[in-house]
Amino acid sequence: QKEVEQDPGPLSVPEGAIVSLNCTYSNSAFQYFMWYRQYSRKGPELLMYTYSSGNKEDGRFTAQVDKSSKYISLFIRDSQPSDSATYLCAMGGAAGNKLTFGGGTRVLVKP
Amino acid sequence: DVKVTQSSRYLVKRTGEKVFLECVQDMDHENMFWYRQDPGLGLRLIYFSYDVKMKEKGDIPEGYSVSREKKERFSLILESASTNQTSMYLCASSLASSLTDTQYFGPGTRLTVL
Q1: Taken in order A79, A66, B44, B7, is the CA torsion positive or negative?
Q2: Can you list the residues of chain B whose pLDDT is less than 50?
Q3: In the predicted model, is pLDDT for residue A58 greater than 90?
Q4: Which residues pair with A85 in a beta bridge?
Q5: Which of B31, B59, B108 sits opposite A43 (nearest CB)?
Q6: Which has fewest Cβ within 10 Å: A48, A74, B2, B14?
């Protein structure tokens, strides 16, 4: 079993819909939780990070962490075609400064 | 803006060849990382470095080595390439060793080993 599980998708939604992404994990020692966005043929870029349980909002993006359930989510409101990308969750704090990544979910927002 | 550049976007090598992947960052970052990215497996850490001439093994170091002679440059070496090393290789850098410091990624090198 992988330490971090993420549905690979693709997740196809119409423009303007809410995109809901999630990851589950098994290591209760994770303290930091991040979401990266990766466009085709580009490297990942950090979207958001949260520390421990709770919510964090940044514009159209909301990240949620539920440590009791070992479950994290990313919501994208009013999705745009430019949001079409692969979204990777990443977690750390369990082993020094190393991050453990999920496999990524491919999202397609159709105009 | 932070810029991380990788020497090649696409590379094709033969089994047994020695392969060098180069990464350069222009923001005086202390930390540099090499990952490989495979479908469904996400990014897996191969090696990282906190300082010049310092290196630490990541999760999958077997078959790889690294070199960091200058702060801005971090090289990944495949001593004898094998077909199971066909992958996308991503380099990243970050300012300091705190986990909350953003890792900035290069565009990646897609390596095919025949």
Answers
A1: positive
A2: none
A3: yes
A4: A107
A5: B108
A6: B14
